Amino acid sequence: MRIPRKLPKPAILLLLTMPLALALNARLEPTKEMAAQTRWVVNVINARHYLSETMQHLDGKEMVEAYTASIDYGKMYFLRSEVDDFVFRFAEPMEKFLEKGNLYAAFEIYDTYKEHAQARTEWAYERLKGDFDFSLDENFAPDRREADWPASKEEAQSLWERRLKYELLNEMLSLAAESKDNEAVSLEPENPDVVDVEADEFDPAKLERLLNDPEFEASILDEAREKIHRRYERNLRLTLDREAADIQESFVNAMTQLFDPHSSFLSADTLESFNTSVQNSFVGIGALLQDDDGICTIKDILPGGPAEESGDLEPEDQILGVAQGKDGEFEDVVDMQLRYIVRKIKGEKNTIVRLLIRPGAAADPSVRKVVTLVRDEVKLTANLASAELIDVPVGNEKTIPVGVIVLPSFYGNIGAGGTLTTTTDDVAELLNKLRDAGAEGIILDLRMNGGGLLSEAVRLAGLFIPVGPVVQVRDSDGRKDVLNDRDPSLLWDGPLIVLTSRFSASASEIVAGALQDHGRALIVGNTSTHGKGTVQEVYHMNTRMPFSLFQNTTEQARPVATKITIKQFFLPEGSSTQLKGVPSDIILPSVNEFLPIGESDLDHALPWDKIDAVDWLNDWAKIGVASPDAPGLLDSLQASSQARQDSLDEFQFLKQQIDWRHQRFEEKEISLNLKQRIEKKVREQSYVEELDNHYDTLKENSYLAQEILLKVAEEQEEISKKNQAEPEKDATAQTEADPADDSQVAESDADEEEDEPPFDIYLRESARIMADWVQFLDKDTSQTAQATVNVEAN
Questions:
Q1: Helix boundaries (H) for 149-195
Q2: What is the arrangement of strands in the sheet containing 441-445, beginning at the earlier edge strand?
Q3: 441 CB neighbour count, 10 Å cutoff
Q4: Which terminus of the chain is more solvent-facing, meaning fewer CB atoms within 10 Å of its CB: N or C?
Q5: What is the reported pTM?
Q6: How far apart are CA 558 and CA 346, in angstroms?
Q7: CATH assignment of 384-529+577-699, among 3.90.226.10, 3.30.70.20, 3.40.50.720, 3.40.50.970
Q8: Are the beta carbons of 316 and 332 closer than 8 angstroms?
């Protein structure tokens, strides 16, 4: 429901609170199905978990507090005394509750939270009508993850007063900076979610006008009030619209994560997302959706999907309604949670879904159109491995071609349906293409790879080594098993660098650690990787429950699962990557070093351990395979890299960035004084612009690079080109931008040319290290050849 902007504020409040109050009275209730699922999870984690813990080890107090914090993550809605009361009521019997699948505690706490959210939202509505003094010397700490709940109502009230001022101040600064020609911004009455401003360069005068022009400040404050009002309305609606399954999932995960941070219960929605991420395909329409101030907005159209093939949808189009089949009624999805909208849009292959669209490019916000799509398989090629060939300058007019393979995850078939492709097959294809293109060294970029399938990690490592151990695994009974590469062939025997970061986790660490233990690859990156050295297995619950559980339902239960830590893995040399990760041979400076993003920063992380090494040796020199263990090589590469880090301008720029980020990270409290915030904003923006200008100068010296595509990506690209080349299917669907207009086409092409790849300092240095390695080998080969000639001459 949209409230006309012309209504007086008391009327707005009345219209908003009445339907929400009705929703508040609709108490969520656990089902028999949820009780059965909860009992099943408890049994599985007790029987299968690596630590062989039982429920007697469960800390009921910690579980209650963890669950309460998962719904009140800012720790502002409850008082400490209320949380203590929850602990008193539920902590001691928690073990019995869980064994019986009793979710009473979860729903009782959440119902209390809903009441608090309703009351605090109504307070915010009233408080927003009042005056605010931004001249006081006050502060607010927005990150309250490590804070405790307020001890008293007075402390809570003070927190909320400062939070509201913090939110208003942020919006005021944003709106003032976006204002055009020093005039206050205005919201279109027909579309209160769209701000009529144009992107412009930062102008300090616009912010300073807040201090010098009372009318401008009042106008901006009113706009900020309305924006915050809508935000609180939407947040409350999201709270009231949560489903019972969401409450169950949060509660059960508060239990599983007392065992370790990676064991979890997967509700039907979460399981579906997990399967999609591993298999890189799903059935739907092929559009990336985003919640934009309560409106489901298309942010991108995926290549080769029904949305692109239709030609009727564009980025920034807004989805207002969804209907099933040719004749189904439209359901209003404005202000609906995005996950529920996605569920309605997805469905069985070859079925019809209809969307009510407000075109993003339309000048008139009242324009609507209906788009009919047939659901089909969508291939997520953007999530697959990709590659490029970089020309690294060395000396005068000489370059060394270095192949880079970016691997975002370890994907493949998990036995829950078909898979688009597998990690190892894709990397093998790219390796062959890079070799054919002349690559003299390979960089495997795992910086943002959070893991995936263990089997694919083992297969992938085997592309670079002959038969031999990749990882050791130990189960809860202490039994050890060695997972080996059993294929004697090497797909790449040349120089190999694995580029890592603190975000490289799990399967990434297996590959990096195994190749390091074998002396096969050089590890470059942060001090160490993430430090996740445990193995999880997904157990799917049998949904064929007794008929009595479903006698009052109209459909079969959607599948659920649980992901349980069952083993710990160890590298061939015997060390676990748990907590410690895989250390880099050459360390590059990074902001990640001080951010809490490692396994050691997680609660209940398992301890590090060590077992015996596998008795195995590869004589790389004897079989002619490149190795960083070659005499003198590592010292030479480290010295050359350090010299560049000390002298190159790009590393000075990187140091500035790191210092800047570190300073901002350490700043826990934010001023609520308007004058101080404006002064700080002007200083920060000036420094950011200085960094941006420096960055633009550095980009002028970017290395030449050639993109190498997978066959499946090439096919998707061809389909996209064909779709884009076809004429519009419906002339009435066109808005202001006419594809036949030459000026529009030219402008689009110019935008694409400006979309340059980022200036990646870490990748550049890794490529230079690889070039040094190639030159070292060339020099070593030359010296060996000369020595042979001398011997023969003698």
A1: 153-178
A2: 586-587, 522-525, 496-500, 441-445, 399-406, 386-393, 705-708
A3: 28
A4: C
A5: 0.84
A6: 14
A7: 3.90.226.10
A8: no
Give the pLDDT confidence of 263-276 residue by residue, as tens digits: 999 999 899 888 88
Q: How many Cβ atoms from other residues are within 10 Å of residue 684's Cβ? A: 12
Rg, Å, the chain Cα set? 29
Distances (CA, A) of 49 to 506, 523, 558: 17, 32, 25
For tokens 């929605």, the residue is: 269
53-60 long-range contacts, CB within 8 A, separation 24+: 53/259, 55/95, 55/98, 55/99, 56/95, 58/94, 58/95, 58/98, 58/255, 58/258, 59/258, 60/87, 60/90, 60/91, 60/92, 60/93, 60/94, 60/95
**Please, which pLDDT band fits residue 396 given cuts at 50, 70 and 90?**
confident
Q: What is the 3-state secondary structure (H, E, C) of 625-680?
A: CCCCCCCCHHHHHHHHHHHHHHHCHHHHHHHHHHHHHHHHHHCCCEECCHHHHHHH
Q: How many helices (H) and strands (E) does the chain have?
A: 23, 24
Architecture of the 281-379 domain? Roll (2.30)
Phi, psi of 277 (to 5 degrees): -65, -30
User: Between the CA of residue 134 and those of 115, 203, 397, 555, 714, what are the distances in Å?
Assistant: 30, 21, 60, 56, 56
* Eight-class DSSP state of 241: T
Average confidence (pLDDT) over 220-236: 95
Q: First vs last Cα of the chain: how many Å apart?
A: 95
Q: Which residues touch 226 (CB under 8 Å, ≥6 apart)? A: 5, 187, 192
As a whole-number percent, the residues of the chain with pLDDT over 70 amount to: 85
* C-alpha span between 529 and 571 (Å, rounded): 14
pLDDT bracket for residue 153 (50, 70, 90): very high
> Average pLDDT in the 338-355 region?
91
d(Cα 283, Cα 378) in Å, to the nearest integer?
6
pLDDT in tens, 478-506: 999 999 999 999 999 999 999 999 999 99
| Whether the predicted pLDDT of 735 surpasses 50 | no
- Residue 169: its pLDDT value, please? 96
Question: Which amino acid makes up residue 398?
Answer: K
Q: Which two tokens stand for residue 86?
A: 């929850």
What's residue 381's pLDDT?
A: 78
At 314, phi and psi to the nearest 5? -135, 155
- Name the phi and psi angles at 288, rounded to 5: -85, 125
Helices marked H in 670-760? 674-699, 711-725, 742-754
Domains 281-379 and 384-529+577-699 share a fold: no
